[in-house]
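Example record used in the benchmark description.
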Amino acid sequence: MSELRILASGLDQGNPSSSILFLIYNAGLIDITQDAALSLLFVNDSTLLLTGSSFQVTHTAIQQTTTREGGVLNWATEHNCEFGIEKFQLCNFTRRRVCDTSLLLYFGWSTRQCNRMVPAPPTAQFLGVLFDNELWWGPQRAAVLVKGQRWVQQVSRLARPSKGTSGACLRRLYILQAVPRTLYATDLFLTPPDLTKPPSALHGLSKMRSLQRQATLLMTGGLHSSPADALDVLAGLLPSHILLTKHQHCALLQYCTLPKTNPIYHIVSFSHNHRWLHSHNAPLHLLFHAF
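Model output (C-alpha cells):
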C-alpha cells in the first residue's frame, strides 16, 4: 500500500459521487457569469457564450468576467481551485467573409494566474463535439468518420478467419459499442435524413454507409463484390440511413421526456411549438420538423 497523502485540492478519481459533488462545488460559477449572454457548466467544463457587434467587444467582456473583482479568478482563489490555462479555448463564431484576422489569431488573455496567449483556432471542442467558427460542422463530420474507421479497424482485429470471434459477437460489439460512439451527437450536426431520397443523395451518409459495409463484411465473411443491402440483411443490421434516423429519433424522445425542472426544457418546448422558422433553424427545429 502507498503512503497516505494529504490532498490540498482535487478529488478522488473513480468515486461514483464525485461528478455530482463537483457540480455542487462549482455551481457558484453560474452566478458569477450570469451577466454573460449564456453560461454552460458540466462537471469541470465551463463555457461562456457572448454576442456582440465585434470580437473586440466580446473579448473585453470575457476579460472583465474573468479578472474583475468577484470574478472567476477570485472565485477560484476562494475555493482553492486551479484552472488549466493551457486548456482554455477561444472560438469566434461568425459567417462574415471579411473580418479582423488579427483578433482571430493574436488575441491575448492576461490573467492573474498566468499571462498566456489564448489563440482562436477555427475549431473548438466542447463535450466531445467540434464546433467550427462558421457552424457548418465539417470538422465534426470528418472526426466522426475517423472515429468510425478506427472502430472498424478494432473490430477487424477480432475477426480472424482461423481464431477470430464469431460473427454474432462482432455484431453485438458493433451495435453496443461502435454505433453509439460513432453516432454520438449526430442529432446536433447532421440533418435528419429524408427516407424518400436514396442514401447516396443524403449529405454525409455515403461514407458512413461504406463504414458499415466494411463491418458487415467482417461479420458475414462475404466477398468484397457483395452488395451492401444484402450484407445488411445477412448481418441483421438496419441500413445506415435508417440506423441514423433511429438514433436521432431516440435522441428526440429523450428531449421530449425531460422534466420541467431541466434547464433546457423551455428550449425544447419552444422548438416544439415553432417547428419551422423562416431562417436560423436550430437542430431541434429540424428534428421536430422531421419527426
